[in-house]
Design brief:
2 copies of one chain form a homodimer.
Chain A (H helix, E strand, L loop, with lengths): L1 H9 L1 H12 L11 H14 L3 E5 L7 E6 L6 E7 L19 E3 L2 E3 L3 H22 L5 E7 L9 H7 L1 H4 L3 E4 L3 E2 L5 E4 L1 E2 L1 E10 L5 E2 L9 H10 L22 H9 L4 H8 L10 H10 L4 E8 L8 E2 L2 E10 L5 H14 L6 E8 L2 E2 L5 H13 L5 E3 L8 H4 L6 E4 L3 E2 L10 E3 H20 L1
Parallel strand pairs in A: 3-6, 3-7, 7-19, 8-20, 9-18
Antiparallel strand pairs in A: 1-2, 2-6, 4-5, 5-21, 8-9, 10-17, 11-15, 11-16, 12-14, 13-15
Helix pairs in contact in A: 1-4, 1-14, 2-4, 4-14, 12-14
Chain lengths: ~450, ~450
């Protein structure tokens, strides 16, 4: 593989510049910022490496950028990525412009560097390097790059229904991946599902002087009481039926968890907290992290939130509730249970809106692609790879892979302090370059497997 | 009084222009916007009517603008006002620029038109008119115009301690007042107290990907649970001792409430709601509105509050809690009870900050100034005045009047749809002009009482 690695090292600046250009193009799906421009740019990148690439309409959502590059072997490897990124707010916590893709202290800083533009750029670069050095790919490659992952992939099911043929592959490399706090590469073999809900409460027709709160309904109180009915300080979700379909981990999965290294002290230090919820440690902490669902307030807003005091009675209140699901919870069933619970508890006045439901999915520990990715990590990195039966995150793994029987696993250029979804998102320049080599090695090995 | 009234009608445009100029000067104490400029402008207005006027330092807060105009009689009437206004957010709900003081459909629109610059301008105009027409005032007048009423007058106690002599008067006309939904002038004889608290919760040192919510503390949940421990859907405050010092209304006060006209249907229609809290109506509704304390969420914020979904685990959460107090609740005692309650309920991690405490205070129904103001309203307005034993609002009535034994009551140019503290604040031009006459008549009658 040295021919490929040398080429990648020699052209590293070119590949880094391509990543910077991609990061510098904002693409916030949640805020409808720069989406068309970014889809066009990604299509241009695919065409630039010889792919037949086009945009596919998703019937109501942002287009999927799809591209194929034919190779020598009959096998097909797909790359799932997304060109949308998280919103950048709060802006004042960024140390440099989130859209500048500034290189500082050996890292590239900016929204999307880790999640997920760094991986798009590394995969495009790997295909480019392979073709430049060897004149062609060892297998067929498909790029499936959607524009709505950060808002829950609400229209991807239209793409998979309309274009099942385009989705078919022998294996899929998932959009993210990278190193843990100890610098060990981590391979995830699944994702949690998600049921993301916006709750809305209304009171008077506009904000009022708070002196009339004696007798005028307050939507902020309604919302707080409704939220408090969902989960108490013991962290147990109170929605009846919420846990009914939760499948406990198998002995093999628990064994995999036990093989995963402990890094509790580093995680606590990184987060700036004294202890984990419920004082959990060891295998119990891992079981909760990987095999338990969550119910999280991701946002809440009502009334006056500026400096100092304003004596106002709010007319509206809103909360975002993010529920991560595990097998076999179904997001639509969970949403129905939530609605029923709110009605039963006297909160039928609270409006609930389902945003981007996703099912949980997992790849078997024994899958070939998992072995190939782990081996490739082992060869390129100094530390022993960690295999995780599932990530705590979510995405359309079921929709794009599990439902077609495609095994998937992660491989990416991020690290544990990449700050995905937070201010100061970043990746290491070295990881980006090594990530390009990693994809080359995976293509080479999977073609021969 | 016709000489005065004619002069006021002839110079109405001049007085209206002075009000517009004052509204056009932003002065948001909570946001430290335009405060020095506004204090200087108000001082200039007082100097313009022959007052000895100066700014008094309040040891850490915005200055008090104080002015005296000597008159014929030994009696002294003070006017309490404030030159600060509420924040204007949310800006998108205003139909015209909040700082434009636009005249439209017979009203002047803008932040502070009702609360409280309309009353400053009307009182200044009344003194001007009296001096122009009659060559001098019938009694001594004091203007005490502070800059922190909307943030709870936190430094006014320094002014009253340092300058008790300046506060002394035979009676005080309070800062606000005006007409109810039926167009009846309302005279308030007291105020509720207030204990306005900001609650803050902290989690990880920055916002995180929500997937780690399995084991990472969420300050939004902490805050929601703490808030839910303060009051439940039955609207009863759960802080132990909160109600201990609440004095029930006297039979005279209940009789006064019963004399107050009902306007429940109009109020409901104005607010756009179907019914009052707890389905209250009639005397029970009035007793709650005027003689019961409140505990109100005036603002809450955490995490992502924009459009769509963002899967974030917030690192901070904040709420503003506005508690209106009735005799004999003390805001410092209430704050201590709140702190104790939070600690007892397991929320010692929640920080509580007291912003602008104020004691409740009431003037006797029989006070001379109350009779004078009511009589003057009766003479100038078509509708029978309503006497209310207290307003549901708050202010430094105790600090500036009750503690010096000064009787106070309200008289102002607002109306029930003035939208004080909300978007589209406004007063009627006619009410402003009549309000000038009203103050002239009050000075005349109180001098002779």
């Amino acid at each position: 593989m040295d021919d490929l690695y040398n080429h990648i090292d020699e052209h590293a600046n070119h590949y880094i510049a391509a990543l910077q250009r991609l990061v510098q193009q904002p693409s916030v799906a949640a805020q409808n910022v720069g989406m068309a421009e970014t889809a066009a740019l990604v299509q241009e990148m695919l065409v630039g490496i010889g792919a037949e690439a086009r945009l596919y309409d998703t019937r109501g959502g942002y287009p999927v950028v799809y591209g194929e590059v034919a190779g020598a072997a009959p096998k097909t490897l797909s790359f799932y990525n997304h060109y949308d990124v998280q919103p950048v707010e709060p802006l004042d916590l960024w140390q440099s412009d989130p859209w500048a893709a500034e290189i500082r202290d050996g890292r590239i800083w900016g929204r999307g560097t880790s999640d997920n533009k760094g991986n798009i750029a590394a995969r495009v670069a790997a295909v480019d390097a392979y073709r430049q050095v060897r004149g062609g790919l060892p297998l067929n490659v498909k790029f499936i790059i959607e524009g709505e992952e950060e808002i829950g992939s609400p229209h991807l099911e239209h793409f998979t229904a309309d274009h099942a043929d385009l989705c078919r592959a022998d294996a899929c490399i998932w959009e993210f991946g990278g190193k843990d706090l100890e610098g060990r590469p981590v391979v995830y073999l699944g994702l949690k599902g998600i049921c993301y809900v916006e709750l809305r409460a209304r009171g008077a027709n506009q904000d009022q002087h708070s002196s009339i709160a004696t007798s005028t309904p307050n939507p902020a109180w309604r919302l707080v009481w409704a939220l408090a009915s969902l989960k108490g300080p013991d962290e147990r979700v109170l929605i009846p039926g919420f846990y009914d379909k939760v499948v406990p981990p198998t002995p093999e999965e628990v064994a995999a968890l036990e093989r995963m290294p402990d890094n509790e002290a580093k995680r606590l230090d990184h987060l700036g907290i004294d202890r984990f919820l419920l004082d959990l440690t060891g295998i119990e902490l891992k079981k909760r992290d990987y095999f338990q669902p969550t119910c999280t307030i991701s946002g809440i807003e009502s009334g006056y939130t500026g400096q100092g005091s304003k004596t106002v009675l709010p007319s509206r209140a809103m909360a975002k509730v993010d529920m991560r699901l595990v097998a076999d919870q179904d997001p639509h069933e969970i949403f129905a249970l939530l609605r029923q619970h709110l009605d039963d508890e006297g909160f039928s006045d609270i409006e609930a809106i389902l945003l981007g439901p996703e099912k949980p999915a997992r790849t078997p520990l024994s899958a070939t692609i998992a072995q190939v990715v782990v081996e490739a990590y082992r060869e390129l990195y100094d530390a022993e790879p960690v295999v995780s039966p599932t990530s705590a995150g979510s995405g359309p793994w079921y929709e794009l892979c599990a439902r077609f029987g495609i095994d998937a696993c992660t491989a990416g250029v991020g690290h544990a302090r990449s700050q995905a979804h937070a201010p100061n998102e970043n990746i290491y320049v070295d990881d980006f370059v090594r990530g390009i080599k990693h994809i080359c090695l995976i293509m080479d090995r999977f073609a021969r497997s």
